Amino acid sequence: MSILGTVFLKEVLENLRDRRVVLSAFFFGVLLAPALFALTTTIASNRAVRDQEQPLKLPVIGAERAPNLMQFLVEHGAEIESVAFGPDDAVAKVRSGDYNFVLIVPDAYGEKLARGEPAPLNLVLDTANTRAGGTTERARRLLDAYGRQSAALRLLARGIGPEVMTPVEVRGIDVATPAGRSVLILGMMTYFCLMSMLVGGFYLAIDTTAGERERGSLEPLLSLPVTRAQLIVGKILATCAFMAVSLLLTLVATAIALSFVPLEALGMSANFGPKIVLAIFGVMVAFVPLGAGLMTVVASFTRSNREAQTWLSVVLMVPLAPIMFAVMNGTRPTANLMAIPSLSQHLLATDLMRGDGIDPLHVAISVATTLGLGLILIWIATRLYRREAILG
Question: Which keywords does the record carry (predicted)?
């Protein structure tokens, strides 16, 4: 144990003196992702609040053809802007971003409305314009409301109650909590945390393997009165330490960043207090030995820092891919999925952020399978370092 401790301290101290390692492990991965996440979420929240609070500016072609509709829209907070250009110009202006949308009242609108026929209204919009999504939806809701009101008045004029148009009334009962809704945004945080964890040990894993070989310092190290297994395990433990610290700092930075994000404006709340941070750390730290072992094994086959970086940049996408799949498909935790490293950590962490209880069996399966695979990779690394070919 004293030999392992000596190798561990040697690698930690050497890499703490390397500015590149420190910046990648404790700055770019730790601070950049939470900062970007907080910034983008804050912008989205402020935009949603602004869209709801500001008057709805509604450019209309042919407003004079629908006076009752215009009055209805004004009474419900819309600001009507009569524009004189034609339909083709409306398409061009919406596509260029000059207008978020344009309402066109065709010539036949009044005539068909008077005959009790469906009166046409054309709303020119650009669904690819994400900035206009909120205001466009407000315009749609107002136009739909006017349509329902007109239908009800037509029925009343014929002595029929408007209720006959609603044979089934569907009442949605939303069981989602504010913390649960926040997972729609926070679901990708586990991806960033695992990425930050891997980046935290990335350069150290390369430097202690391919870097030693490239500098020619590996052979003198192997000639010391230390077994090769002790040497490589000590190096892997140093990588694990950097990864664990990077993970903890990322979670703390995320918790601090979320305290400044106005999620309440979106009807959400971040369940990311100190207890949740520690719980997520406890769940995800089991991935540290697996990540360190994987990077060490891959780097042991390379002969230079550049080659190791190239291979690891590709290989590290493998453990992150299940998280992307789970986020896109809304995967829920099951006992079988707990046997998949990275995915099990994502699912458990997501349940913690949602405020749901987690099954102790799921935790046990996740920790056991992840640690087991990590120990296998570390064992493979020790076997690889027994080969004379490791010297290049």
Answer: Membrane, Transmembrane, Transmembrane helix
For residue 50, being part of any structural domain is answered with no
**Would strands 56-61 and 101-104 be described as parallel, antiparallel, or unpaired?**
parallel
Three-state DSSP state, 173: coil
Based on its alpha-carbon atoms, the radius of gyration of the chain, rounded to whole angstroms, reads: 30
* Residue 183 included in any domain: yes
Q: Of 306, 270, 311, 274, nearest to 294 (Cα)?
A: 311
Owning domain of residue 110? 55-173
* Gap between the Cα atoms of 100 and 95, Å rounded: 9
Max CA pair span of the chain: 101
In 3D, which of 379, 375, 378, 369 has the Cα closest to residue 348?
A: 369
238-293 pLDDT, tens digit per residue, is 889 988 988 998 888 888 887 877 776 666 677 788 898 999 999 999 999 999 99
CA-to-CA distance for 199 and 20, rounded, in angstroms? 12
Same domain, 227 and 80: no
